[in-house]
Design a protein that fits this description.
Blueprint: E1 2-5, E2 15-16, H1 18-21, E3 25-29, H2 34-44, E4 50-55, H3 58-66, E5 72-73, H4 76-79, H5 83-86, E6 90-95, H6 116-135
């Protein structure tokens, strides 16, 4: 997802193309974040991204976006319930060319007995998965 300030030119949209995004200053996580290369490569398909700055702190990125200095990028799951998004300071925009679903799984030896902590962890993951499906209107 792309995120913009409530006063940004794109704030009235719900979906944008990467061609639109690269026309504006961008803030990206620095190269120590895996997301940096993914987003930079995606944007580069439409031309040269106008990276204003890179940051190493998620809170800094949100503040740069909220101040209207640049467009930022986060996975939807991270910011859906963030106060900046909830109060409207930051507006989420779908990226047309990016519809990626993340899957999670758990691997363990079939013939081994799981500890109580492991079983509780798996149960909690199942509970959280159901909550996410409901929050994001996903099908199982």
């Amino acid at each position: 997802m792309a995120y913009v300030s409530r006063n940004h030119d794109l704030a009235g949209k719900t979906e944008v193309s990467i061609k639109e995004l690269i026309r504006y200053p961008l803030v990206l996580f620095n190269q120590s974040f895996r997301m940096h290369a993914f987003i930079y490569n995606l944007l580069s398909k439409a031309g040269e991204p106008r990276v204003l700055m890179t940051v190493g702190n998620p809170e800094s990125l949100k503040r740069v976006v909220a101040e209207g200095l640049a467009i930022g990028f986060y996975p939807n799951i991270v910011l859906k319930f963030d106060p900046f998004v909830q109060n409207g300071d930051i507006v989420a925009l779908d990226i047309m060319e990016m519809h990626k679903l993340t899957e999670f799984g758990i691997l363990y030896k079939k013939d081994s007995r799981l500890s109580l902590a492991s079983r509780e962890f798996i149960n909690e993951l199942k509970i959280q998965a159901v909550k996410m499906q409901q929050a994001f209107h996903l099908q199982s």
